[in-house]
Amino acid sequence: MPRSMWKGAISFGLVHIPVDMYTAVDNKGLDLTMLDRRDFSPVGFKRYNKGNGKEVSWDDIVKGYEYSSGEYVVLSDEDLRRANPEATQTIDILAFVDAEDVSLLYFEQPYYLAPGKGGDKVYALLRETLRKAGKIGIARVVIRVKQHLAALVCVGDVIVMNTLRYADEIRDAGDLKIPTADDKKAAITDKELKMAMALVQGMAEDWDPEQYHDTYREDVMALIEKKVKAHQTKTITMPEASETKRETGKVIDLVSLLQASLGKKPSKATADDDDDDDDDEPPPPKKRKPAAEEDDEEETPPPRARKTAARGTDRVAASGAAPKRAGTRAAAKPAAKKAAAKSTGAPSTAPARRRKAA
């Protein structure tokens, strides 16, 4: 069972709910040790007396507040508690508000609140009240030597206390160069907005925190294992001269980047939606005729071929050779008729010849 970092009570009107506070976050950053590059020995720090330069142990250390240059007021843990005993032991609920009214910019650090001894029923009462009302409780609490604003949120069956930043701790963004909605330099076209919306819809999915993890930490750990296996634990890698920084200039063609993100070429439907960019686009292709009409055109001889034949006949007539060819064609017609008659009559004469031979 984890060790609680704070014990006290939630003040809810005249109701006091005993609770124990536990940290809800386990930071998993890389634990890197500072080394002396000359012999790779660990570098340590000593707590020393700035007056005589001698090292000071933890048992001899107390805390103090410098009220003037070089003058301090000593404050022990008991002094800090006596300054306001109720504030240091109570989570005092001040109001109940809608969760969506509190910007995420104010949320700072989450803590689990578990019921203390004999506080199960009143703990469950506050939890179900928050859940049914759809509200979060805004409270004050002192942790160590600082009073925090906090939000009590119902997360499943647990009441989570999330410390909040005060309004004067939030820096004003007015000094930043943020484009406004009517800024002409940052004007967004309907096409760009439509494509961006399509990209968002394509990437939309249900929230599953388990699928996300620190991939950079895994990459660094893989690099460490690689250097250990290669016996390069004492090798200091320096940047190469050819390496260049990633360009972070202005985006030249936002539409092409959106199209590449969508993983497809620009469609005709998307192009037709932007009437303002029609002047820059080529004219639409001609419609193709139906297959039936194409077949009719192929069967009909082209008019150019007929004109060529006519011209050839005129040229022959002009040279005087037309009568001979006309007579030859006229004589050829009866011969062709006789040949056709013979070919059609041949079957009828064959039986008679066979009878004579018999």
From TrEMBL:
<comment type="function">
    <text>With LigD forms a non-homologous end joining (NHEJ) DNA repair enzyme, which repairs dsDNA breaks with reduced fidelity. Binds linear dsDNA with 5'- and 3'- overhangs but not closed circular dsDNA nor ssDNA. Recruits and stimulates the ligase activity of LigD.</text>
</comment>
<keyword id="KW-0227">DNA damage</keyword>
<protein>
    <recommendedName>
        <fullName>Non-homologous end joining protein Ku</fullName>
    </recommendedName>
</protein>
<feature type="compositionally biased region" description="Low complexity">
    <location>
        <begin position="341"/>
        <end position="351"/>
    </location>
</feature>
<feature type="domain" description="Ku">
    <location>
        <begin position="53"/>
        <end position="181"/>
    </location>
</feature>
<comment type="similarity">
    <text>Belongs to the prokaryotic Ku family.</text>
</comment>
<keyword id="KW-0233">DNA recombination</keyword>
<comment type="subunit">
    <text>Homodimer. Interacts with LigD.</text>
</comment>
<feature type="region of interest" description="Disordered">
    <location>
        <begin position="261"/>
        <end position="358"/>
    </location>
</feature>
<keyword id="KW-0234">DNA repair</keyword>
<keyword id="KW-0238">DNA-binding</keyword>
<feature type="compositionally biased region" description="Acidic residues">
    <location>
        <begin position="272"/>
        <end position="282"/>
    </location>
</feature>
<dbReference type="InterPro" id="IPR009187">
    <property type="entry name" value="Prok_Ku"/>
</dbReference>
<dbReference type="InterPro" id="IPR006164">
    <property type="entry name" value="DNA_bd_Ku70/Ku80"/>
</dbReference>
<feature type="compositionally biased region" description="Low complexity">
    <location>
        <begin position="320"/>
        <end position="334"/>
    </location>
</feature>
<dbReference type="Pfam" id="PF02735">
    <property type="entry name" value="Ku"/>
</dbReference>
<dbReference type="InterPro" id="IPR016194">
    <property type="entry name" value="SPOC-like_C_dom_sf"/>
</dbReference>
